[in-house]
Amino acid sequence: MQHAIGRKWQHWLDLSAPHTAPRWAVSAVIVLIYGLRVYLINGWYIITYGLGIYILNLLIGFLSPQMDPEIEGPTLPTSRDDEFRPFIRRLPEFKFWYSLTKAFCVAFCLTFFSIFNIPVFWPILLMYFIALFVLTMKRQIKHMIKYRYVPFSFGKTRYKGKEEGSGGKDDK
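RE: above sequence
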């Protein structure tokens, strides 16, 4: 029974893989519902802080190359004659989305149990998280500049192959 449910779940995940925008839209709704719940019930800040740290960890994996040039030596081309190697993420977009969405669902479920509502002064957690985020992103951006890689595809030149029916001898 559990195996059949797992296969069905994996089937739905596989079907959703090419639909990036709708997947992220559903996740955005889940994030808004979670944020609204935490705001309205005025608690569970330690859960939210832990969720933020986990998301920061996912984000670093998403922005990092699979082969770290600091550890394995330079892998990106350094001159025009060097071989081009595309940017491959340590954490692919689909796994990033899936882990993020699962984390918000788990955190949402945890807000229904008062044992997880540990009293904390939330502004301290917020300031600590912002400092951690800024320092981590600063280090990541320095790494990106040092090894000259950009983990995003927008703004990059895209090359298309030869289109069908474009001046071949069989065209009439």
